[in-house]
Amino acid sequence: MAGTKYAYVKKFELADVLLPGTFMVLRLDGHGFHRFSQDHDFAKPNDERALQLMDRAASDVMAEFKDIVLAFGESDEYSFLFKKSSTLYNRRHAKILTTVTSLFTSSYVMHWSEYFPSTRLSSLPSFDGRIIIYPSTREVRDYFSWRQADTHINNLYNTTFWALVQQGGQTTAQAHETLRGTVSKTKHEILFSQFGVNYNDVAERYRKGSVLVREPLTMEDEEDERKKQKPKLYSTITMHHCDIIEDRFWTARPHLLE
Ligand code: DGT
Ligand code: MG
Ligand code: MG
Ligand code: MG
Ligand code: MG
Questions:
Q1: Which site in 96, 113, 138, 169 is 20 to 30 Å from 57, CA atoms measured?
Q2: Which residues line the pocket of ligand 1, CB cutoff 6 A?
Q3: Is the peptide bond before 254 cis (omega within 30 degrees of 0)?
Q4: Residue 41: left (phi > 0), alpha (psi -120 to 50), or beta?
């Protein structure tokens, strides 16, 4: 085809390569999930099934794209960290972003009925996506701290808000008013004194989000896998609901930021 008189149009496709030797972080976010969550009766403040379905789609993405070493999910969003040396699709921005985003979406749809057996998928879920490149480990650490701090702030607010409404009998307008301008400590106190809830006992999944880690298999594990005739599996994906702001998580896994 290269020789036809039409082939020049290909030259209009400009390169969109992401800077080599930098960390690529890809974040997806559900489009219009305020409405989508209402249409599908998501539990408030947190719907365990919906969060598990997000985790499932994210782990399918990680199974397909081995250069993704870490993922963090909360609410209707997921962030994926690619290893710094990744040359996936020659680091073409649009190719990476669209392939990952559509794979995530198709997995979300394909597995919907496993997680929502009695709720028909009645509208079309879609996700927006972006890739941010970060020059050093400092920004990568701060990026994930930013997302997990967001999880905490939103969950504390939402947990207190829905306690006021569901158990405290307030209207949503009243609950907004009750919480206007309050600091974290006040929300903890409201939960404890009015509803007997110690916030620290709320499920870690809700307080900390989901962390998917690609763990390299040890030689011994590899040998076991070979015996099971899966010679190509050199890593495994594990899920955690743990702190990723402090150093501990990262120092235990130096391979993530190599
Ligand atoms: P966007 O992202 O600009 O298209 O708009 P939205 O509506 O997706 O807004 P966003 O992403 O800022 O907020 C996520 C929405 O999804 C928020 O309205 C709450 C809803 N949502 C996410 N997870 C849950 C859940 O577990 N339970 C309930 N009830 N709602 C959830
Ligand atoms: Mg948004
Ligand atoms: Mg959204
Ligand atoms: Mg969101
Ligand atoms: Mg093609």
A1: 138
A2: 29-34, 37, 42-44, 46-47, 50-51, 75-76
A3: no
A4: left
Q: Are the CB atoms for 32 and 149 separated by under 8 Å? A: no
Ligand in nearest proximity to the CA of 75 = 1
Please work out, in degrees rounded to the nearest 5, the angle formed at the alpha carbon of residue 217 by the alpha carbons of 211 and 218. 130
**Is ipTM over 0.85?**
yes
- Tens place of pLDDT for every residue, the chain, 258 residues? 558 999 999 999 999 999 999 999 999 999 999 999 999 999 999 999 999 999 999 999 999 999 999 999 999 999 999 999 999 999 999 999 999 999 999 999 999 999 999 999 999 999 999 999 999 999 999 999 999 999 999 999 999 999 999 999 999 999 999 999 999 999 999 999 999 999 999 999 999 999 999 998 876 666 666 666 655 558 999 999 999 999 999 999 999 999
Full-model pTM: 0.94
